[in-house]
Design goal:
This protein has a domain at 16-85. It is built from three helices and two strands, in the order βααβα. It is 60% helix and 4% strand. Strands 1-2 form a two-stranded antiparallel ribbon. It is mainly alpha-helical and 110 residues long.
Length: 110
């Protein structure tokens, strides 16, 4: 028995928008990162030190940046799951049940 046995009558659904969105994610990641890093880079360019001045603003933009990265990562995982789920079905190895013991089905009454 091979590792991956496709279902003989499995239905494979056509892809819709998931591949298009997955291909756009790197560009969105880069543009979003630039949007959230640009104010930090500008503040660093003007002041030279981000930790002594405007620490609240630095923390806010870093929080927004990490939240954006989390959103992009979650979207990527979701799109990959959709792509896998739309693919062909596979049959797992059969698990044969042991022989039934009829004596265990009706235990003796006390």
């Amino acid at each position: 028995m091979s590792r991956l046995n496709k279902l003989p009558n499995g239905v494979r659904y056509p892809s819709h928008k998931e591949w298009q969105l997955l291909k756009k994610l790197p560009k969105w990641w880069l543009l979003g990162t630039l949007v959230f890093v640009a104010p930090l880079a500008y503040a660093w360019w003007q002041n030279g030190d981000l930790l002594t001045r405007d620490i609240e603003r630095t923390a806010m933009f870093l929080g927004l940046l990490f939240t954006f990265w989390f959103f992009i990562g979650a979207m990527m995982i979701g799109l990959i799951v959709i792509i896998i789920m739309k693919g062909p079905g596979y049959v797992s190895d059969p698990y044969y049940l042991p022989k039934e013991d009829k004596a265990l089905e009706n235990p003796p009454k006390k």
